[in-house]
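F.,

This is the one I mentioned.
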């Protein structure tokens, strides 16, 4: 989602116990009130999913929002070995200095807590009172407005680092793992783009992901890394895991834009044969009152 979300105090049950609720230093009252006003060009993704010959429908994520455009509940696809193996529903509680992701089926179980740095960007996400092994602690570095690196804690004494690179137009072109002693040739995700075609709003999420990126993916689902979505239309995705093991290489084809220039669907196709492998759907809503649903 390319529109920035505003972060301000949200008082609710568990959040009071987790965070100190006060005004966010990086957002003024006037900015907050302005962001509350519905705007014609303020559009959010209500759901993103795909289908193929083996899977009739798979939700990658779905969101319910408040009037400020913050996710209040997210259905999150959980990855393992490159594929979504399950979906988990979180209630999302926002406070001035962080976010709690609570198991929607058990309000006492906080799975993850994300905290903001001084500039209002996510600094880290760590397990809550009810850790889930599929979501690991992750911290983030930034270069000005762009995510530049993330550091995941796989287990005690085991860490992974990945670096984010962009082209001169602001398109994310690669995510590269740092080499380790056991994996001297690092894994890498690479993206290709058109040179002059753009969309007003777009979202791509077709690459296989490892379980250690689930916490990172969850934050993407709720719109916290808008800079990762490109300016130009994407044309290809390639994923190599460590030591040159290529797990995915697809061209992006048949991109459909609505009359407002938002990307609403695309296919991934084999680079060699052109055969369509999967179809992706993006459901948008530009009416904020339609986005608001009570998750309880």
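My design for it:
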């Amino acid at each position: 989602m390319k529109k920035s979300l505003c972060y301000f105090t949200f008082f609710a049950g568990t959040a009071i116990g987790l965070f100190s609720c006060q005004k966010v230093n990086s957002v003024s009252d006037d900015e907050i009130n302005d962001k509350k006003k519905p705007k014609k060009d303020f559009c959010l993704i209500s759901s993103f999913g795909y289908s193929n010959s083996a899977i009739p429908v798979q939700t990658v994520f779905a969101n319910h929002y408040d009037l400020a455009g913050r996710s209040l509940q997210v259905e999150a696809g959980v990855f393992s070995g490159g594929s979504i193996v399950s979906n988990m529903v979180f209630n999302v509680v926002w406070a001035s200095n962080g976010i709690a992701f609570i198991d929607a089926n058990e309000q006492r179980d906080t799975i993850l807590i994300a905290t903001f740095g001084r500039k209002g960007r996510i600094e880290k996400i760590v397990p809550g009172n009810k850790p889930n092994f599929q979501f690991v602690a992750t911290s983030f570095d930034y270069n000005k407005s762009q995510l530049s690196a993330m550091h995941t804690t796989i287990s005690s004494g085991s860490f992974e680092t990945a670096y984010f690179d962009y082209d001169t137009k602001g398109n994310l072109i690669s995510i590269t793992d740092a080499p380790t002693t056991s994996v001297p040739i690092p894994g890498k995700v690479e993206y290709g783009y058109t040179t002059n075609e753009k969309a007003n709003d777009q979202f791509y999420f077709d690459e296989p992901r490892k379980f250690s990126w689930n916490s990172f993916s969850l934050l993407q689902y709720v719109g916290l890394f808008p800079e990762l979505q490109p300016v130009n239309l994407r044309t290809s995705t390639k994923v190599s895991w460590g030591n040159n093991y290529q797990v995915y290489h697809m061209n992006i084809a048949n991109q459909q834009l609505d009359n407002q220039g938002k990307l609403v669907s695309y296919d991934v196709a084999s680079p060699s044969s052109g055969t369509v492998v999967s179809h992706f759907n993006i459901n948008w809503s530009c009416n904020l009152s339609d986005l608001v649903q009570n998750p309880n």
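The two ends are 24 Å apart (CA to CA).

Talk soon.
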